[in-house]
Structure formats: structure tokens, C-alpha cells
Amino acid sequence: MINALIIDDEIDGAEVLQFLIEQNCLNVNVLGMAHSVNSAVNSIRTLKPDVVFMDIEMPTGTGFDVLKATQDINYEVIFITAYEHYAIKAFKTNAIDYLLKPVIIDELINAIKKAEKQIGLAGKLNYSNQIDSLVLNNIIRNKKIAVPSQEGVLWIDIQDIIRFEAESNYTHVFIRNRKRIMIAKTLKSFEDQLQNTNFCRVHSAHLINLDEVERYIKGDGGNVILKDESSIPISRSHKMELLSKLNMYL
Description:
- By secondary structure, this protein is of the alpha/beta class.
């Protein structure tokens, strides 16, 4: 059983989260709630939770102030906030996850699973791995994907992504009306996260948005021509899956 504490200045929001946890995460015991920085610090020191569901912006300070004041106490953090722009700062604190309001149940359950695993580990994940978690494990909310940029995090509508192309352990992301972005992650990682979307792996090096397909050219494996006029080879092993998804029959 995981003992949890909810920190949110909005009482209604905290109660909704508690209800979602109680209904969907039976292995989590909510010890209590706190609605300000001071009460949060006192509750953490008194209750010593395993995991804290942490809001960021509060009238009396921020969730980061709470973390700083309780850095001598061992607990895991799942940020739950209405603001996207704190993501990088949040993961620098080794947070387990970063969920946007309104909370999606599946994301909440996955965050709890991460917490369970982390509580059983001796050390915390490093910053690089946490960024990977942000980029890949949170394909995210409102049909967006987050990718790191020089300024912080770039949030891209999935529908604006034309295709992904592998290059060794890196992946190029081709975005409509933008230059391509290179990310230090494998194509397989993106494929796994996009399983329930309109993307299809068509080759060892290519993952495409099916909405961008303009025509299919027959061949051993064949090729697809996308709306941006790029020609993508189709491997024989992926041909039938692609044709099935495109509802095409030879």
C-alpha cells in the first residue's frame, strides 16, 4: 500500500483527485490534503507520505517551495497542474510524472505504477531519463507530444506531425510548416507511444502519419508519397499492415 498526500490550494480539485485515486488506484491510501505551502510542509513532516500529488501554483508560494522546505524527507512527487511551462523545472526535481489538469485516469494510473516502481528502487532516475519520460511517456493530453528544445519544451499537436525518420539512436521529427527536429530517442520509442493513433510503422527507419498519405506506389514493398511530396519506402514486413490500415486491396 502506498501512502499519499494531496497538495492543492483548490479544495474541490483536491477532493476530485482523491475520488479518482480511491476509485481507480486501490493500492493508494490518501493520508490527507493540504491547501497551502505551510500546511503542505507541516503535513509532509508529520505524515511522511510515500508519494505527494503536488500542485505548483498556490497563493502562498509554489510546489517547488514545498520541495525545498522538505528536501531532507524522502518521498516521491507527482506534479498535477494546469500549467505546461513548469515541465522542465519539475523534472529537474526528479519528479515521477507531470500530469495536466483535468487529470486523465489512464495517466494517473500510469503515474502510480511509476511511483510503485520508484519506491522500490534505491536511487532516483537522473535528469536525462526524466526528460525521456517527459518526451515519451506523456504523449500527451489533448493529443499533443512534448519534445525538448533549446528553450525548454515544445508542445506539438500530433496531427501536425508528418512523419518520423530514424537515424541510429536519434529520430528526426518532420512537422508541418516547421523545420525538422532531431531528438535523442529511438524510433521504436515513438512507435510504442503512438500505437493508438493514426501513425504506422512502414519501414525500419520510417513512422508516418496516415493522414498525410497522398498515394501508394506498388512494388516489392512499395512506396508511399506524402502530401509534402516525400517518398517513403515500405518494407515487405510492414506492407500488409499499411495496406490494411489504408483499406487498400491489391
